[in-house]
């Protein structure tokens, strides 16, 4: 019988820490503040925006939204980011993606101040993930996975972990974070000839490929801990992961659900980054004062 690795208690645990840190900042008159930049009216963006704003209210984080038309020029979008970069009252910047095709994300992400880059878009912050002795903001989803594993006391030191998916957003940075936790990490990708040969021998399997229910029960053994990062929508409008949850649940040691799993932790990590950015700003201001 599998165990459901619910994200809700992890979120609650993280929220308690965030609230304490916000209270300490408020004592000195500092309110963690984020700016959401949204281009267009994509339903997914609007839904996520509502979730972020609701969570900001719960945690005592101030939030603002800058809505730009879908045909906004690259110059105008960059101007908004640069204005936020220089505004000391804004500690975190969140730019919703994907952007319209006429906007060059590789150029735009470089404009975001790394100190305010709460979603780890700027390559400077990705570089800091490589340099373990350098403090930086790690990508939200990889950090959420690590927080969940730690919360449930799943051993990482010496663990054999297979990562199915090697994207720059999840797979690669997560692998680096897990190596820092002294795990042995194996990557499987589109050119891996026999993925199951690796996953069936792993203590932990993490899947992030964006393919609905592609991974079945034959990829695991009864002692596998499965972390499903994928969020997909089926043809009939149902949300599912990359792993066939119903088929796999009873045949593994533990597994995350798609709804109420890694996704809700990721949002909380994002907001913890706003607080972290505010703390860093206050510390640097005190040093330079």
Automatic annotation (TrEMBL):
Catalytic activity: (6R)-5,10-methylene-5,6,7,8-tetrahydrofolate + NADP(+) = (6R)-5,10-methenyltetrahydrofolate + NADPH; (6R)-5,10-methenyltetrahydrofolate + H2O = (6R)-10-formyltetrahydrofolate + H(+)
CC terms in the record's Gene Ontology section: cytosol
Pathway: One-carbon metabolism; tetrahydrofolate interconversion
Domain Tetrahydrofolate dehydrogenase/cyclohydrolase NAD(P)-binding residues, every copy: 139-279
Pfam family, one: THF_DHG_CYH
Any one Gene Ontology molecular-function term assigned to this protein's record: methylenetetrahydrofolate dehydrogenase (NADP+) activity
SUPFAM superfamilies: Aminoacid dehydrogenase-like, N-terminal domain, NAD(P)-binding Rossmann-fold domains
Ranges that cross the membrane: none
Tetrahydrofolate dehydrogenase/cyclohydrolase catalytic domain ranges (all copies): 5-119
One GO-annotated biological process of the protein: tetrahydrofolate interconversion
Enzyme Commission number(s): 1.5.1.5, 3.5.4.9
Keywords of this entry: Amino-acid biosynthesis, Histidine biosynthesis, Hydrolase, Methionine biosynthesis, Multifunctional enzyme, NADP, One-carbon metabolism, Oxidoreductase, Purine biosynthesis
Binding residues annotated for NADP(+), in chain numbering: 165-167, 190, 231
Matching Gene3D superfamilies: Leucine Dehydrogenase, chain A, domain 1, NAD(P)-binding Rossmann-like Domain
Role according to the record: Catalyzes the oxidation of 5,10-methylenetetrahydrofolate to 5,10-methenyltetrahydrofolate and then the hydrolysis of 5,10-methenyltetrahydrofolate to 10-formyltetrahydrofolate.
Homology family: Belongs to the tetrahydrofolate dehydrogenase/cyclohydrolase family.
Known partners and oligomeric status: Homodimer.
UniProt xrefs under HAMAP family: THF_DHG_CYH
PANTHER family linked: C-1-TETRAHYDROFOLATE SYNTHASE, CYTOPLASMIC (PTHR48099:SF5), C-1-TETRAHYDROFOLATE SYNTHASE, CYTOPLASMIC-RELATED (PTHR48099)
Name by which UniProt lists this protein: Bifunctional protein FolD
UniProt source species: Anaerosolibacter carboniphilus
Gene: folD
């Amino acid at each position: 019988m599998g165990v459901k690795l619910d994200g809700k208690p992890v979120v609650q645990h993280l929220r308690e820490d965030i609230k304490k840190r916000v209270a300490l900042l408020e004592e000195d008159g500092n309110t963690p503040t984020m700016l959401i930049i949204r281009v267009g009216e994509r339903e997914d963006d609007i839904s996520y925006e509502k979730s972020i704003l609701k969570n900001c209210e719960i945690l005592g984080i101030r939030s603002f939204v800058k809505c730009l038309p879908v045909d906004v020029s690259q110059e105008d979008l960059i101007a908004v980011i640069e204005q936020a970069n220089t505004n000391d009252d804004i500690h975190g910047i969140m730019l919703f993606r994907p952007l319209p095709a006429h906007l060059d994300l590789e150029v735009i992400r470089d404009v975001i101040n790394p100190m305010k880059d709460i979603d780890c878009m700027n390559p400077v912050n990705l570089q800091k993930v490589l340099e373990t002795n350098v403090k930086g903001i790690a990508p939200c989803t990889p950090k959420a996975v690590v927080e969940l594993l730690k919360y449930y006391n799943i051993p990482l030191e010496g663990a054999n972990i297979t990562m199915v998916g090697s994207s720059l957003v999840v797979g690669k940075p997560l692998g680096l974070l897990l190596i820092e936790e002294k795990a042995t990490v194996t990557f499987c990708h589109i050119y891996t000839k026999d993925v199951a040969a690796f996953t069936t021998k792993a203590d932990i399997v993490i899947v992030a490929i964006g393919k609905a229910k592609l991974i079945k029960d034959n990829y695991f053994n009864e002692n596998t801990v499965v972390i499903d990062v994928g969020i997909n929508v089926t043809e009939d409008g149902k949300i599912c992961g990359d792993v066939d949850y119903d088929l796999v649940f009873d045949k593994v040691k533990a597994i995350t659900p798609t709804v109420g799993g890694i996704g809700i932790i990721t949002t909380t990590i994002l907001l913890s980054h706003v607080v972290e950015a505010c703390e860093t700003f206050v510390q640097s201001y005190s040093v330079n004062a």
